[in-house]
Amino acid sequence: MKWRRCSCCPSALPCGRRRDRRRRQQTSMITINLNPGHKRAKNASPMAAIGAHLKSAGQKINDPYRLGALAASVAWLGYVGMTQLATGNELSNLEPKLEQARAENQRFRAFLGEKRHLESVRDSIRAQIATIRTVDGDRYVWPRIFDEVARAVPPFTWLTDVQYVASAPDPVTDTTQKVIEAPPVQVDIKGRTVDIQGYTRLIRQLEDSPYLKDVTAISANTVLDQNRAVTAFVLKATYYQPTPSAAGPRAEATGADPAPPAKPTTVAQKED
Hints:
CATH superfamily of the domain at 140-167 and 183-271: General secretion pathway protein M, EpsM
Radius of gyration: 61 Å
CATH architecture of the domain at 140-167 and 183-271: 2-Layer Sandwich
Largest sheet: 4 strands, antiparallel
CATH class of the domain at 140-167 and 183-271: Alpha Beta
Structural class: alpha+beta
């Protein structure tokens, strides 16, 4: 093999530059892409890439138990996600109802407070009315007695005397009792009548009175009054304060308030 003399080399040996050029020409090759879709996969969506990875992982996993566990895990995650979404929607729907229930609770509590206040005012007014009725019943004992006796007197009958009869108090058996009830007010009614039927009518009308009870005939004798035979009688009655049901019709007719529950009137009350 003859070596050409190189004009660029004084030693007349083959030039190193030519050797390098020849070597590069021999090593250069044409590269052909046998997977043309590889570049397009880079521009695809992330979900597609995830699906491709899952598909490749599924191809690599050949154990059916692992596949079942993976499917169960995916199903569980899906169930948890759906449950969370449903719970969130239900919670968002219940929040307005909760606010409404709280508002109703506040209004109901305010209503109960107002009701208790009104009930306390009502009880106070009732106590004041009961006190007023008690004072009224204790102060006007004799006017009521005279009014009831005068209303019960029939025609052809007149009264000669109406007086208080003192009665002995009941014996005290309990010395620890602080309040001792005094005996009731008892009155003697004396009068005369020219008709014996008027006498019985007087007793009956006194018994019908809501304020006078226990009407008892003490005596009934025939006497002369201005040369006329008349019947002189003595009656005894006890004064009681009637119940509202008993004095209701009479109170409505007279325009007065019903009296408090029945109780005997004391001697001190009579003197007042």
